[in-house]
Design brief:
The protein has 148 residues and is an all-alpha fold. Helices cover 80% and strands 0% of the residues. It has 2 domains: 1-75, no CATH class; 79-148, no CATH class.
């Protein structure tokens, strides 16, 4: 069966393959980010005697930059300006963190869910939402939208 430009526009097989590839790369990048966020502070503190407060801050900055670069260059191949994508990513990240915290509090305090389960549920749901949100603002197809 021959692929056509119509497949890409209509959500046909070619477009689904792109989506699956992007989702797979996003999952790998998410795993890398989690590993950096947890592992880098341990290495910095245990092997280089960096204070934990500094080690965690460094890890968060490194993970933030790795996430941005992965989204822009590897997962979605954005063709917009770096500055615009960075601003959109920064604002989106802040919004997501705020929403994640409110949802965590709702599950934990209002519904009485165990804090680990509440956190895991929020982070899983948020990861799915982030994939589709970042895809909408950074997808190199030109159909994405910027928030600024």
């Amino acid at each position: 069966m021959r692929r056509s430009a119509e497949d890409d526009r209509s959500g046909g097989p070619a477009r689904r393959r792109v989506l699956v590839g992007q989702a797979a790369r996003f999952m790998v990048a998410t795993g890398l980010s989690a590993t950096l966020s947890l592992g880098l502070p341990i290495v910095l503190h245990e092997f280089f005697r960096v204070p934990p407060q500094v080690a965690v801050a460094v890890a968060f900055v490194v993970a933030y930059l790795v996430n941005f670069l992965a989204l822009r260059l590897v997962i979605f191949s954005s063709d917009r300006s770096v500055q615009r994508d960075f601003l959109n990513f920064g604002l989106s990240s802040l919004a997501f963190r705020g929403i994640e915290y409110v949802l965590f509090l709702a599950l934990f305090q209002l519904l009485g869910l165990n804090y680990i389960l509440a956190l895991a549920a929020v982070l899983c749901a948020s990861s799915i939402a982030k994939f589709f949100w970042y895809r909408s603002i950074m997808d190199g197809s030109g159909r994405g939208r910027a928030i600024v």
